[in-house]
């Protein structure tokens, strides 16, 4: 005999199983929030967007990266290690020099004056990344690729002709970090940290006479309007921008999502690494600055570069030692790698 109640129970169980299965499938589709403090007009921003697209493609739509540019989530860069560790955001674009309060050793991994040839940067890049991965892991953050910054020329942009350390002795120089202030101080040259957004006005009003800056992109901040002369000093020791994910977020991913995330991050890393050193780009940029009216002076002499590098390494070592045991270890590891190349 058929039992209506039995059919009802069986149907109810089947429906429940169906709903559970659908819920399980839906649960596999995860969205992660990604913080970036960089404006959307920066080249790095497009690389982050591309990373998000690659993750979606490689995971067959199972993993979505929601990118928030220009600090749109209202998070502060100085707090980012704590923010990730506490799960307030899933992912972030990380830059080691930003976290001097919580992880001062990370600022000691790399410093200006570390290299004198662009090729040295690529040779030690793996060492640098390993050290950053080590430091971020202390905050329950894993690195899944990132953006290797282009190695731009760094030079002095001045109102008067300057292409030697002796010429700088009676000048006031704008720099972007405390390490650089200490470096120039060791050379008997006055320097002060002035944010990029205030640099133009500082030059225009005479607060400083020269700007130590990334020459390749100097026109983007209109330095040709407030300086007339430029002289090359050394290549930019550019710390990479890294894609960091909290271990909390990482634990939510299945194998397919994790593989997609890692493959996408490494693809961006390898592609940007391949184009980071580009002499043709630098030569073209120099020509463009000449056409804007900048007078290109002879480069700083080899003797001056050596003197600058010696001071930079001395200031770098002091900064590392002040950061503690990890800072000293990072400094020694990178300088040894540079010396062996």
- Mass-distribution shape: globular
Could you tell me the CATH topology label of the largest domain: D-Maltodextrin-Binding Protein, domain 2
Instruction: State Rg.
Output: 25 Å
Structural class of the secondary elements?
alpha/beta
Strand residues, percent: 15-25%
CATH class wording of the largest domain: Alpha Beta
Largest sheet: 6 strands, mixed
CATH architecture of the largest domain: 3-Layer(aba) Sandwich
Give the mean pLDDT.
91
> Order of SSEs, N→C?
HEHEHEHEEHEHEHEEEHHHEHH
Number of helices: 12
The low-confidence runs, each spanning 5 or more residues with pLDDT under 50, are 1-27
- Straight-line distance between termini: 87 Å
- Strand order in space, largest sheet: 7-6-8-5-9-11
Could you name the CATH homologous superfamily of the largest domain?
Answer: Bacterial extracellular solute-binding protein, family 7
Which labels suit this protein?
alpha/beta; D-Maltodextrin-Binding Protein, domain 2; six-stranded mixed β-sheet; five-stranded mixed β-sheet; 12 helices; 11 strands; 48% helix; globular; disordered N terminus; TRAP_DctP_sf; DctP_fam; signal; TRAP transporter substrate-binding protein DctP
């Amino acid at each position: 005999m058929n039992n209506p109640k039995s059919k009802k129970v069986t149907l109810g169980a089947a429906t429940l199983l169906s709903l559970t299965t659908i819920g399980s499938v839906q649960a596999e589709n995860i969205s992660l929030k990604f913080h970036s403090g960089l404006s959307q007009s920066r080249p790095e921003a497009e690389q982050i967007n591309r990373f998000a697209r690659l993750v979606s493609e490689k995971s067959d739509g199972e993993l979505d990266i929601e990118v928030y540019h220009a600090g749109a989530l209202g998070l502060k860069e100085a707090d980012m290690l704590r923010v990730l560790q506490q799960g307030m955001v899933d992912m972030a674009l990380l830059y080691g020099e930003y976290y001097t309060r919580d992880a001062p050793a990370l600022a000691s991994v790399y410093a200006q004056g570390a290299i004198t040839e662009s090729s040295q940067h690529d040779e030690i890049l793996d060492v640098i990344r390993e050290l950053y991965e080590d430091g971020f892991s202390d905050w329950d953050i894993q690195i899944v690729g990132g953006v290797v910054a282009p190695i731009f020329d760094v030079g002095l942009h001045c109102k008067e002709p300057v292409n030697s350390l002796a010429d700088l002795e009676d000048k006031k120089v704008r720099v972007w970090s405390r390490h650089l202030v200490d470096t120039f101080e060791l050379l008997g040259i006055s320097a002060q940290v002035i944010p990029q957004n205030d640099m133009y006005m500082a030059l225009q009003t005479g607060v400083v006479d020269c700007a130590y800056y990334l020459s390749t992109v100097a026109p983007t901040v209109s330095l040709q309007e407030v300086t007339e002369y430029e002289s090359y000093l050394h290549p930019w020791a550019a710390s990479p921008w890294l894609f960091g994910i909290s271990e909390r977020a990482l634990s939510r991913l299945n194998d397919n999502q994790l593989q997609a995330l890692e493959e996408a991050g490494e693809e961006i890393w390898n592609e940007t690494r391949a184009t980071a050193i580009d002499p043709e780009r630098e030569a073209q940029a120099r020509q463009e600055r000449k056409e804007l009216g900048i007078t290109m002076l002879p480069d700083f002499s080899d003797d001056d570069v050596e003197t600058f590098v010696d001071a930079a390494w001395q200031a770098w070592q002091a900064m590392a030692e002040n950061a503690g045991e990890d800072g000293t270890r990072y400094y020694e590891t990178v300088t040894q790698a540079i010396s062996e190349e």
